[in-house]
Amino acid sequence: MEKLTVKQLSTAEKLRLLCSNGFWYTMDFDGKIPAVSVSDGPVGVRAERKNEKGENVTLPSVSYPSAQSLANTWDCECARIMGECLADDCYEKNVDILLGPGVNIKRHPLNGRNFEYYSEDPYLAGMLAKSYIEGVQSRGIGTCLKHFCCNNLEYNRFEQSSEVDERTLREIYYLPFEIACEAKPVSMMSAYNRVNGRYASENKKGFKVLRDEFGFDGAMYSDWEAVRDRTVSAKAGCDIEFPFNQANYDKLVEDFEAGRITEQEVDECAARVLELAYRCKEMQKGKGVKRTEKERLDVSQKIAEEGMVLLKNDGILPLKKGENVALFGCYAKPERDMLAGDGSSRVVPISDKFDLQALLEEELGVKIPFESMYYYNKVLGTNGYAHWCAKPHKGKAYAAESGVNVICAGTGVPFEYESGDRTDMRLPSSQERAIIDLAEINPNTVVVIFAGSPIDVGAWESKVKGIVYAGFCGERGLHALSGILCGKVNPCGKLSETFPANLESAAVNGTYIDTAVTCYSDGLNVGYRYYDRHKGAAKYPFGYGLSYSKFEYSDLSVKTDGTDAEVSFTVKNTSGLDGKEIAQVYVSECSPTVYRPLKELKGFKKELIKAGESKRFTVRLNSRSFAYYSVADDAWTVNDGIFRIFVGSSAEDIRLVGTVHIKNNF
Q1: 270 neighbors 14 (Cβ within 8 angstroms)
Q2: Of 172, 305, 491, 533, which has the highest C-beta tally within 10 A?
Q3: Cα separation, 239 vs 17, whole angstroms
């Protein structure tokens, strides 16, 4: 096919190119240019096709752990490999561009879409997204970085204005997009909401930053049905509107004929759409499916193993072979897509049966009694739900006779979903009641939480001996969980977001919000940056996670060269079990001339350390590791001065501290 330029298209064709072809495709003019197909989503391909009745049906696909669970691995290689596997899924379903990853910051613990995003920290979110994009695009499939920007609640998301100052935008909400742009995503998606009063699809100032400063050279398109005025959004730099909207297209043509949008402005957008079409087809040359479906399922399980977080363990885990265990909670035998959030990233998994009871019985070599206790937030009788008919009194009898209770609790599709926010951080009362009742009978209780956001554990945490945060762990998540509970897998995941003690302790508590405006008065104090100044407000800190191994840190060395630094230290596994440790490097300016958080994550390293052995960790920092964004100078600025380097196992568990003089000669 001849590669056309925008000059070879008629004016009518160029205008039509700025609007999509139906729901999932770009315009191709009956094969004159390549058509590009796009599809949700970040944790599994949600491709839709028509069945023999003409109805839209979602095709089954490998369901991977959510972005939140992937982030809890703190492992860029996991993100890269997941991207490669998703590319294989795309090839099998004739998808050219995967609509992900999402890098919006987790500002509010109740955001219904938090499970689709990586972290409260922009550096961690950006690094994982960068690796994910590199993985997908290395296999010839395009990505779509989203949602630009400040989509941090689902409440009234089509109209709500996120009011954010420039420095906070740069240091918190823009930064993950900036880092991810280093991987050259072929496209990006604007958000639904307004940013400082301007719709995100019309955010000319933001789009200019992306292209002129961050090096984004792909096509920008709207979130689905996010365009209010196609002309205004096109003039701002939104290249494609999804899905096709006849009224918006007609208005665009009318505005062009009236001179309200120039041919040059149309050409700029159309040229980027053309480039996207040819770029996608060129990327795919010589490539195709690399991994088998089984291999992709194995990857899904591996990521789930790496991302599960052990929050509490009073010696009860791992379970021992032959141990007398009782299992509770409907999440132990979930329905097909129960262990996930709802919305555009919801995946129909390939597997159709999920049974932790059978997996534990196989691992432990014993029969395990099971009682559902509840169905999501209900205790059901036989009214059409005979399969989930709960008998809590029977469960209490099992608990009394068991050595260890394992209770599977959580949220899922009814509670965490696109277009709505959670109403509470606590588990449903039926679940809390079951945990408390069973733990009173037998305190040797382990609670497993399947959720995509922080959970308030205050009502029952002190009554149980173990807590595992499984997250939304994909279709092989129960296999991963069984391995961790039984000691076949040593847990190593760490939290990519802080768990506040309760909603009242959250960083956003007391910030202004009304029906039309969300005021980001917390500024830079997002996540652990807030909790560092409010001790006791966090139940489980950012970067926290236990292991069956124990680690000691020593021998910190920091070498500087101008505004660059090399941080190295030794980590020793003092236990008798091989394990992985995630070490985190934070930076703090000792005498800042502007407000700065007490410390900020600027590097991390994850390593497997054999029992009794030591490993030397090295993390390199550059000028941006010490910089703040100066609104006065419209530039990143490094002060010549004294900085502290904190090395920790979590944001609150700092093991080593060094002091360095950073010399800025400019």
Answers
A1: yes
A2: 491
A3: 9
| Sequence-ordered list of residues with C-beta below 8 angstroms from that of 470, at least 6 positions apart, any chain | 69, 304, 308, 339, 410, 448, 449, 450, 477, 480, 481
The strands making up 97-98's β-sheet, listed across from edge to edge, are 38-39, 97-98, 142-148, 187-190, 219-221
Can you tell me the distance from the alpha carbon of 105 to that of 288, in angstroms, rounded to the nearest whole number? 33
**Paired residues of 654 in beta bridges:** 648
DSSP letter for each residue of 113-139: TGGGS--SSHHHHHHHHHHHHHHHHHT
Catalytic positions: 223
Task: Write out pLDDT tens, residues 25-67.
Answer: 999 999 999 999 999 989 999 988 878 888 888 899 999 999 9
Buried b (16+ CB within 10 A) or exposed e, 360-384: bbebbeeebbbbbbbbbeebbeeee
Helix (H) or strand (E) holding 281: helix 263-283
Q: What is the pLDDT of residues 284-327, one digit of tens each?
A: 999 999 999 999 999 999 999 999 999 999 999 999 999 999 99
Peptide bond into 41 cis (omega under 30): yes
What does the block give as tokens for 644? 């502290």
Sign of CA dihedral 58, 64, 67, 68: positive
Model pLDDT for residues 511-559, shown as the tens digit of each residue: 999 999 999 999 999 999 999 999 999 999 999 999 999 999 999 999 9
In 3D, which of 249, 279, 272, 273 has the Cα closest to residue 261?
249
Tell me the β-bridge partners of 163: 519
Ramachandran sector of residue 622 (left: φ over 0; alpha: ψ -120 to 50; beta: rest): beta
- Given a contact cutoff of 8 angstroms between Cβ atoms, the answer to whether 361 and 367 are in contact is yes
pTM listed for this prediction = 0.97
Structure tokens at 387: 């399969």
Q: What is the mean pLDDT of residues 474-487?
A: 98
Closest to 58 in 3D by CA, of 103, 113, 95 = 95
Q: How far is 344 from 139, CA to CA, in rounded Å?
A: 23
Query: To which H or E segment does residue 287 belong?
Result: none
Q: What is the pLDDT of residues 233-249, one digit of tens each?
A: 999 999 999 999 999 99
What's the half-sphere exposure (Cβ side, CA atoms, 13 Å) at 107? Answer: 26
For residue 180, pLDDT over 70 is answered with: yes
Instruction: Output the average pLDDT for the chain.
Output: 96
Q: Containing H/E element for 625?
A: none
Partners of residue 289 on adjacent β-strands: none
The confidence score (pLDDT) of residue 387 equals 61
> Degrees (nearest 5) of the Cα angle 638, 639, 643?
95
